[in-house]
Amino acid sequence: TPPVEKYEYQAEVSRLMDLIVNSLYSNKEVFLRELISNASDALDKLRFLSVTDSGLLKEAVDFDIRIQTDKDNGILSITDTGIGMTRQELVDCLGTIAQSGTAKFLKALKDSKDAGGDNNLIGQFGVGFYSAFLVADRVVVSTKSPKSDKQYVWEGEANASSYTIREETDPEKQLPRGTCLTLYLKRDDKGFAHPERIQKLVKNYSQFVSFPIYTWQEKGFTKEVEVEEDPTEASKDGQDGKTEKKKKTKTVVEKYWDWELTNETQPIWLRNPKEVSTEDYNEFYKKTFNEYLDPLASSHFTTEGEVEFRSILYVPAVSPVGKEDFFNSKTKNIRLYVKRVFISDDFDGELFPRYLSFVKGVVDSNDLPLNVSREILQESRIVRIMRKRLVRKAFDMILGLSMSENKEDYDKFWDNFGKHLKLGCIEDSENHKRIAPLLRFFSSQSEEYVISLDEYVANMKPEQKDIYYIASDSVTSAKNTPFLEKLLEKGLEVLYLVDPIDEVAIQNLKSYQEKNFVDISKEDLDLGDKNEEKEKEMKQEFGQTCDWIKKRLGDKVAGVRISSRLSSSPCVLVAGKFGWSANMEKLMKTQSV
Ligand code: ADP
Ligand code: MG
């Protein structure tokens, strides 16, 4: 038998192994994602290289990944028919850290340890092959490269500073090509050798790996078998007492084991949108996000050029429970894939501004590294471009919904997520142009149904320059305010801002289609009907009265003026041009303790 050779790990690997074995225990299941993605990479590599070197495909086997479990012995094996490794490649790849991603992980781990420690890092970074040692105390890698005529076995143990390599001589273990990884699971992790558990993890992490993944599953089928009936029973219905043996059939379940395709190899977002039905999109949405209602809208698109990614976005039909703190909760609404491998649903904040956090969907990038972390995402120029495009597409989708014939859909949307868009007015001035047409308000001419700013503008009087609004706590109190009198008399429409956030949102927008938003409760309201003659007369007649009132009220008011803004009420309290509106003051009072 050929010799078994012993190798020392590079120092960094030893350190990494030590960390994995001794201090990282949360989120162990990510090992499967890492190993499947290695298998998928190996298949990708082979596919790519075989384009120019068809000799690599001399063994006629399919490109696939097979995961077998032996739950009695706690053994899990992952076999691919990819590029495999030569002896030298085994040393280079599984004994050293060539890769900057893993080195970065080590650094991040150190930093986070200094800052109190965070076991979740492994999930964000992925430590590749070595994550096998999260769950296994012995790992055997048997591998055959089509460039070599020998198959080699790498063997390593958790807590060891060295590994071995030998030639595979067992005829039963010969591979046509590719790699078979066998994990001997730790005592507490033998649960990963349960076929159902593995099936579930594969579905979750790698549902959309582009090569078929088979798992070894127990199956059953029912069979009719003939059984002989008890002769004493049979004699009872025999008329002449002859003991004639009667045959009877019985249904039995026959059990057997077989490979079962566990992933969907063609992700829906890779398909041509023209060939995907709304039902397909909705089904995918409901399955992926555990929703029971169809989404209100969806958008499937590809971007090419500078940055390449595909995405399907959705507007949910319901807002999540606990609306109150909608910007504080973790949403897990965007599933990020890199080259079809599921990376994380934890990066919503990196891909969308928080006011759009209600948008659900998948994003699959070809330009990001597999072991992408939040830190990488935050610094990435690619992500900045992606984010911009995603936001634009989300707005297009919502705009489409707002123009849909089915008006109820947008009403639902507005009820659920109107607040989010108003928050957008405050937080994202760059997208004001996209948000504003989506806003809805009640008005003096539409107290039952909300209207859009476009509808308001279309209804403006020819000489009207501004968009008028009054902020109040309800439609009822808004329509009873004396500020309205003159405007109503002139037939001018006034928006009723009755949601506490409305006023700030509008003040941030400042204008719509070059028309300023004007608060009708502020002093200096100019309705374009100034009559200087008359004002002069009034001042002469009532000037002293005003002075007298101001004296009586003292500091309680800033001033007392004669004004033409009322038609039937004798007087009204207005806010200063630069001060808070009365509504805002009320709000601030309720919020300050
Ligand atoms: P990464 O995948 O980021 O390169 P890993 O630690 O996951 O880092 O893997 C290290 C290297 O080991 C890979 O780059 C690849 O060369 C090799 N490797 C791992 N698994 C396989 C496999 N199933 N088939 C072929 N090569 C593999
Ligand atoms: Mg890897």
TrEMBL record:
<protein>
    <submittedName>
        <fullName>Uncharacterized protein</fullName>
    </submittedName>
</protein>
<dbReference type="GO" id="GO:0005829">
    <property type="term" value="C:cytosol"/>
</dbReference>
<dbReference type="GO" id="GO:0005886">
    <property type="term" value="C:plasma membrane"/>
</dbReference>
<keyword id="KW-0809">Transit peptide</keyword>
<dbReference type="GO" id="GO:0140662">
    <property type="term" value="F:ATP-dependent protein folding chaperone"/>
</dbReference>
<feature type="binding site">
    <location>
        <position position="374"/>
    </location>
    <ligand>
        <name>ATP</name>
    </ligand>
</feature>
<feature type="binding site">
    <location>
        <position position="80"/>
    </location>
    <ligand>
        <name>ATP</name>
    </ligand>
</feature>
<dbReference type="GO" id="GO:0016887">
    <property type="term" value="F:ATP hydrolysis activity"/>
</dbReference>
<feature type="binding site">
    <location>
        <position position="38"/>
    </location>
    <ligand>
        <name>ATP</name>
    </ligand>
</feature>
<comment type="similarity">
    <text>Belongs to the heat shock protein 90 family.</text>
</comment>
<dbReference type="GO" id="GO:0034605">
    <property type="term" value="P:cellular response to heat"/>
</dbReference>
<feature type="compositionally biased region" description="Basic and acidic residues">
    <location>
        <begin position="233"/>
        <end position="243"/>
    </location>
</feature>
<feature type="binding site">
    <location>
        <begin position="100"/>
        <end position="101"/>
    </location>
    <ligand>
        <name>ATP</name>
    </ligand>
</feature>
<keyword id="KW-0547">Nucleotide-binding</keyword>
<dbReference type="GO" id="GO:0050821">
    <property type="term" value="P:protein stabilization"/>
</dbReference>
<dbReference type="GO" id="GO:0032991">
    <property type="term" value="C:protein-containing complex"/>
</dbReference>
<dbReference type="GO" id="GO:0051082">
    <property type="term" value="F:unfolded protein binding"/>
</dbReference>
<dbReference type="GO" id="GO:0005524">
    <property type="term" value="F:ATP binding"/>
</dbReference>
<feature type="binding site">
    <location>
        <position position="34"/>
    </location>
    <ligand>
        <name>ATP</name>
    </ligand>
</feature>
<keyword id="KW-0143">Chaperone</keyword>
<feature type="binding site">
    <location>
        <position position="179"/>
    </location>
    <ligand>
        <name>ATP</name>
    </ligand>
</feature>
<feature type="binding site">
    <location>
        <begin position="124"/>
        <end position="129"/>
    </location>
    <ligand>
        <name>ATP</name>
    </ligand>
</feature>
<feature type="binding site">
    <location>
        <position position="85"/>
    </location>
    <ligand>
        <name>ATP</name>
    </ligand>
</feature>
<feature type="region of interest" description="Disordered">
    <location>
        <begin position="225"/>
        <end position="245"/>
    </location>
</feature>
<keyword id="KW-0346">Stress response</keyword>
<dbReference type="GO" id="GO:0048471">
    <property type="term" value="C:perinuclear region of cytoplasm"/>
</dbReference>
<keyword id="KW-0067">ATP-binding</keyword>
<dbReference type="GO" id="GO:0006457">
    <property type="term" value="P:protein folding"/>
</dbReference>
<dbReference type="GO" id="GO:0005739">
    <property type="term" value="C:mitochondrion"/>
</dbReference>
